[in-house]
Every structure is written in C-alpha cells, then in structure tokens.
Amino acid sequence: MKKRLAVLALVLLTLQSCKGQEKELIWEENFDGNSLNMDYWSYENGDGCPDICGWGNNERQIYRPENLEIKDGLAVITAEKDGDSYFSSRINTKDKFEFQYGIIETRAKVPGGHGIWPAIWMLGDNIGEVGWPASGEIDIMEYVGRMKDTLHTTLHTPATHGDHASTKVTKIDNVEDDFHIYKVEWSKQEIVYYIDGEKVYTFSPEIKDDEHYPFRHKFYFLLNMAIGGNFGGPNVDDSIFPAKFYIDYIKVYQ
Q: Is 137 a catalytic residue?
C-alpha cells in the first residue's frame, strides 16, 4: 500500500511539473474579419524620408495602407509597380503589443522574383531612445527573391549587424509554393530558430551585455515586403508584379 502511494505521489509530482512547464498563449493575431485590427497594428507609410530615406537600405518602395488586405483569415501584402513607382505595405505593433521573452510562432507564404524582400521581424521598444542597432533586431523570417529557396534567420546587435549580422541561411526547395511555420524561442540566455519544426539556428553569445545580446527588454512586431535595396536588389524584375506575401497568423506564448 505504501509503495502504491509513493508511486502515485511521484506521478502527481511529475504531472504538476509538466503542467508548470506548459506555455500560455498571451497574444495571437489570426487576421480575422475584413480589415486590419488597429488595436494591435499601425501602418508605416511613405519612403522613409526625411529620417531614413529608402528605409535605411536604399529600398525603392513607397509604403501605403492600400497594399495590405485582410481576406480569408490572411494578411496579404501586395508589392506592385504603378508607373515609375513601386508600392507595398508595412505594419508594426509598436506601443500596442510589446513583450519580453517567449515562444513566437507564425505561418506565412512568400512570393518569388528578383527584387522582393518579404519579412517578419521584431525591433526593441527602446529604438527611439538608443537607435539601431543598439535596440536589437530579431528577424524571424526574411526571404530575398534573388536568392531562390533560401530563408534567412538573423539577429542584429551592436557587435554584429548589417553585413556582419549573426545569421543562418536555410535551403528549402520550392519554398514559394506553400506556407511554412517559423518559430523562435527567445529567452534571457539565447534565441533559437525553427522552420517547420526543425531547429535551424541557435544564437547564444558568451558575452551577454548590451553590445552582444541586446535582447533583454521588450520588442514589437513588424511585417513588410520591401522592393530592391541593398539586400533585396539592387536590380528589380518588373515582370514579377504584383507579388503577394501571405501571413496566416502570429502567436506568442510565455
């Protein structure tokens, strides 16, 4: 009898321990309805001027709200050319949803073509005070059309940023043909990336100061599709337009 009680107690402790490790869904965006939820999101419009013309990367697009559509449970960003100008859309959750640490999961489908650059990423909430790259940048997913079937998962810090950023390039055949799931596990000590359930990259520098790991404060989301620029271009194949970037959902667990 005592042995059975001991076994039962051990089982209960194990179950309680497992339950304590479960992550709680603290925020999700499923893009329901027929318009963007402005309680969560804000548009970033224009060409970045006068503060960061070309959005800091010599990009060609002008951002505007009409290039984003909420339809069938998806956010659809359309990149297009009208006359001599390129247009797209960019949104963020700054000051509306910001968080520190957790598991981020998103599902998206990227378009192809030379000159486009769709991305799901995050910036530190202190960017207005310290600037970039001191704020830190977590790129959950970037796809550069001129590098077919290669996905970038990247982190920018004061010590490693721009062309010297900490990055992992993952090859996925025919990536443009279907949706894929991107997950990031972000903690005080490391950031781990997964694509379709497979671990692809772990970032955990030995030094965890603000220079090497500026990821110990709140961050917010950004969704956009750039055109051309230092990374996306510089050449753009106009025959690819309109190009559509589909985002199914974003979920955050803690």
A: yes
Catalytic residue (one of 129, 137, 198, 211): 137
Q: Does residue 142 have an active-site annotation?
A: yes
Residues 6+ apart with CB under 8 A from 93: 40, 41, 42, 220, 221, 222
Q: What is the pLDDT of residues 108-155, one digit of tens each?
A: 999 999 999 999 999 999 999 999 999 999 999 999 999 999 999 999
Q: Which residues of 156-188 are buried (b: 16+ CB within 10 A; e: fewer)?
A: bbbbbbeeeebbeebebeebeeeebebbbbbee
Cα separation of 238 and 247, whole Å?
A: 23
What are the CA-CA distances from residue 127 to residues 33, 62, 89, 139, 225 (Å)?
Answer: 32, 22, 21, 15, 21
Which one is catalytic: 142, 190, 206, 211? 142
Sign of CA dihedral 59, 221, 44, 86: positive
Check: pTM over 0.85? Answer yes or no: yes
